[in-house]
TrEMBL record:
Protein name (database record): Glycosyl transferase CAP10 domain-containing protein
Stored PANTHER family: KDEL LYS-ASP-GLU-LEU CONTAINING - RELATED, OS04G0534100 PROTEIN
Record carries keyword Phosphoprotein: no
Keywords attached to this entry: Membrane, Transmembrane, Transmembrane helix
Membrane listed as a keyword: yes
A Pfam cross-reference name: Glyco_transf_90
Transmembrane regions: 27-47
Domain named Glycosyl transferase CAP10: residues: 178-405
Amino acid sequence: MKDSMQWVWTNFIETIWRPFVKSAKSASLFILIFSLFFTALLSLFFFKTTSTSTVNTIPHYKYPKRNSEIQLDCTAYNHNGTCPSHNPITYNPQEANQDRSSDATCPEYFRWIYEDLRPWALTGISKEMVERAQTMAHLRLVIIKGKAYVETYKKPFQTRDISSLWGILQLLRRYPGRVPDLDLMLNCGDRPTVESSKYSGSNATSPPPLFRFCKDDNTLDIVPEINIKPWVPLLKELEKANKKTKWLNRAPYAYWKGNPYVADTRKDLLKCNVSDKQDWKARLYIQDWEQESKKGYKIYIEGAAWSVSEKYILACDAVTLLVKPRYYDFFTRGLLPRHHYWPINPDDKCRSIKFAVDWGNSHQKEAQKIGKTASEFIQNELKMEYVYDYMLHILNEYAKLLQYQPTIPEKATELCSEAMACSAIGLTKKFMMESMVKAPAKSWPCSIPPAYDPSSLYSLLKRKSNSIKEVEMWERKFTKNQENKHS
Ligand SMILES: *[C@@H]1O[C@H](CO)[C@@H](O)[C@H](O)[C@H]1NC(C)=O
Ligand SMILES: *[C@@H]1O[C@H](CO)[C@@H](O)[C@H](O)[C@H]1NC(C)=O
Ligand SMILES: *[C@@H]1O[C@H](CO)[C@@H](O)[C@H](O)[C@H]1NC(C)=O
């Protein structure tokens, strides 16, 4: 039953999306796709690290005087079903906009926030635009004076809305007084639904702003594609294992483990497995993901949509062989080919994989550096703090564009951590308790770097595509040489 529903859903999405896949790049500009909560949750769950900065270095940040932890008040909530009134603290624009020049700058990938909001940069966002997104949304989230209100339009798949909303509530707890009033539509599906082609041309209406926070295939979902282990222990394990396995002792093959039946491109990948006749230097297994640190090269290939395994693969010191993805995650645009990963041509996977492994085996130092750069990226730039900060910044920038003062929709209900957690049971409860923010952050959010100017954005994209093209050229040369050898 679940499978057939998944199938219907996938096909439905596929039908509306497929024709526009070619323009996915521009479409992506019109969509706020962040699998943010996915990541937030993963990280919430997994990076249970707390803020490292100290309060003392930022004397002008006024924390709530109650220095204590923010407790869940389930007794009161269960008594009369109302959210506590003291919590969280109201947005204060003066405080929120204070000069923060002494702060650490957020990672480079935060600059994409401006690109995602670019379609509305000139016009701003009107109430009409937001409401036009309603037909595509699962729910509407309004935040007013630090309180969250939700109107549900349709029930999303599985429990994805829960993880997203829980994340928002935790953000409000982490940064009391810093989340502005806002009004947004949220879709919890896997794939982008706002088609750019509908909104281009001289007389076109502006696209409806639609958030997509949840693409989580893990934790609360019932059919995880892969077996996720908690992130903090995993990262530590990986770090240890990475140290233990010297690069030179790593197996000189490209490894992949996963479920090939979710996407044609994955079934296609299986053709590259070693056989009596051919060795493309690929070793492919049908199986759940599991930690493997001894591999020199690991393949990342998208499934039905984007797959959670990317972070884990990048976190190993192995070189990630990235089969050119169609979808991206909020951080993936910060990755550079040949710097963080090695690009694999999706239309000629086997040859491309073999070339990559041969190249790496004969350029050990460079290959090793790629693996290291990627794992450092995951360890340093995808920390829990940054996931929250990304969320805060995107909401902030979005709210700046709103042309109206949001009001509580008639059918909305107030949402607070109590409303979600007090009655939760089992795994959901456990997940919530582990990921709950217990006190406001003790440090400022990082400051967002400036938007790309058109020419630097252009040259960045150009640099990326040239780097990939160069690899493709090497591959062609290599293939030609091989053919000459054999003839
Ligand atoms: C609900 O109960 C709490 C504590 O028992 C009380 O402070 C609050 O005023 C009550 N709210 C309503 C609407 O009755
Ligand atoms: C755009 O609108 C103008 C004025 O309403 C009209 O004259 C023009 O034909 C329209 N252009 C297109 C491409 O629809
Ligand atoms: C790929 O080849 C290896 C080695 O022969 C084998 O163990 C594995 O089962 C094969 N994988 C698939 C998906 O057939």
